[in-house]
Specification:
two-stranded antiparallel ribbon, 5% strand
Length: 176
């Protein structure tokens, strides 16, 4: 089963890359459109390209979230998945370079990553990454089931007077 999950992650990665290539091509076209004189036709062409890029970005975000979820699932249920009678083992090298998390959202990392051991983060490091916005607090968060972690986040955002974030965390807690 693990092999199929990793294959799914790889297919999603390829689809995201294909979408990124389309976005890059659209950007080139937009640059050419901007050389044209201002007109209704030019505005319409720009609008179409911007809308297409927006939809591709939304799709990519969904696919990246799905990749993260599958990777999280593999990591969380490693033993049961390894005991599926296929004799497969998780190859953690598959995860290196597939996904990176940045302040502006998840992005696909380099195509040929340097093979290295996956980094293990402490609770404090995860907390720092979460409050800085590098990791989103959502259903994929590593401490999603830890109420103490959520309370610590709430306390932090209350102290920093980020009431908008407190409101989001409170709403997310209700959904959960």
């Amino acid at each position: 089963m693990i092999k199929q999950l990793w294959e799914t992650v790889e297919l999603l990665k390829q689809h995201v890359q294909k979408n990124l290539n389309i976005i890059y091509e659209n950007e080139k076209e937009v640059k050419e459109f901007l050389k044209e004189p201002v007109s209704e036709s030019r505005s319409q062409k720009l609008k179409v390209k911007f809308q297409e890029n927006k939809l591709l970005i939304i799709e990519n975000n969904d696919f990246i979230r799905l990749q993260l979820y599958i990777i999280h699932l593999i990591d969380k249920y490693r033993k049961p998945l390894n005991n599926d009678n296929t004799g497969e083992q998780i190859n953690e090298e598959n995860i290196s370079g597939n996904i990176s998390v940045s302040g502006s959202g998840s992005q696909i990392a380099q195509q040929n990553p340097v093979k290295e051991e996956p980094k293990t983060y402490t609770r404090e490091e995860i907390f720092d990454l979460t409050i800085s916005g590098q990791i989103q607090y959502d259903y994929l968060h590593p401490f999603i089931d830890d109420n103490d972690f959520l309370n610590e986040l709430m306390e932090y955002f209350i102290k920093t007077e980020d009431y908008e974030m407190c409101k989001r965390l409170k709403a997310f807690k209700k959904e959960k």
